[in-house]
Design brief:
Elements: H1 2-12, H2 20-64, H3 68-71, H4 74-83, H5 87-116, H6 122-166, H7 171-177, H8 180-198
Helix pairs in contact: 2-5, 4-6, 6-8
Length: 199
């Protein structure tokens, strides 16, 4: 609108006042985008705090009520560690990702409809190319999740060994049995393995 109105003012001698309206619209749009980003960040933080307040006590109570056979199970603690890695951020992230996905779908539908009116075959070509990309993205997401499961197990192990090496509770046992070198070797093994997996 600004470009077309400016050309009309220059070439056809229309009133320059006609340029003000599209400029005001553009300023309002920029202002809306800025305010929406600020409000989005604020609402994300607020929702994260609400989820944390509601979710953490439930998880803590659930862990406290675990049977002994689960407490001594490695798979159980690997699962707990994955759940307790900023669960409020993960839940909030899912909520905002779904919202973004809906917004993206609306935008893409509008663009494809617009292209369809000019080049009928272009949207079909774009959709055809998108299917394998979607498949690759889905496969990549599953592989990333599986990798995170393996890494979380290794991280839990070397963090536990690090606590045994440096924690006050195990200081007497370290002195009595002299297992520092062996634990340190196991710690470095798990640490390097986790580092290579993350890299």
């Amino acid at each position: 609108m600004i470009i077309n109105t400016t050309i009309a003012v220059v070439e056809n001698g229309e009133s320059i006042l006609n340029v003000y309206l599209p400029i005001i619209f553009m300023m309002l749009l920029i202002g809306y985008q800025w305010v929406s980003e600020v409000l989005s960040g604020f609402s994300r933080s607020k929702i994260s705090l609400i989820v944390r307040a509601a979710f953490r006590p439930i998880v803590t109570e659930k862990i406290a009520r675990l049977n002994y056979k689960h407490i001594e199970n490695d798979e159980t603690w690997d699962l707990i560690k994955r759940i307790l890695q900023n669960p409020e951020d993960q839940i909030t992230g899912v909520l905002f990702n779904v919202t973004s996905l809906v917004s993206l779908a609306i935008n893409i539908t509008g663009i494809l409809a617009l292209i369809l009116t000019y080049v009928w075959w272009a949207p079909l070509l774009i959709l055809g190319l998108s299917i394998p990309l979607f498949y690759l993205a889905s496969k990549s997401g599953k592989e990333n999740y599986d990798a995170e499961k393996i890494i979380s197990e290794k991280v839990r192990r070397y963090e536990y060994l690090g606590e045994v090496l440096t924690g006050r509770d195990a200081s007497e046992e370290r002195t009595l049995f002299g297992y520092t070198d062996k634990i340190n070797s196991n710690y470095m093994e798990h640490y390097n393995s986790a580092y290579k997996s993350q890299a």
